[in-house]
Amino acid sequence: MLTVILRRLLTRGVRKGARGSSGWAATGAAAAALMAMRRLGSRPTGTVYETSLKPGHSVTITAVEVPSRRDKKRARKAAKRAAKKSAAA
User: Within 10 A of 39 (CB to CB), how many other CB atoms are there?
Assistant: First the structure.
């Protein structure tokens, strides 16, 4: 959803900015910068591990759930509360 909005702002900013509207040109430049930051900030995907298998060998593939920012924050708060409780007791 955000990508669609940024793309529209970029297109409109370039078109109207080329016609002389400095406000739209700045909007287009800001949208382009945001899109570039999102693209550069995304996690790269690629090969993690590669090996050759011999006859009789097998591979097990597992997916590791990466905790979200919200989950990490909740865990930090819970640890802080637990430390406070144990210090008070």
Answer: 9
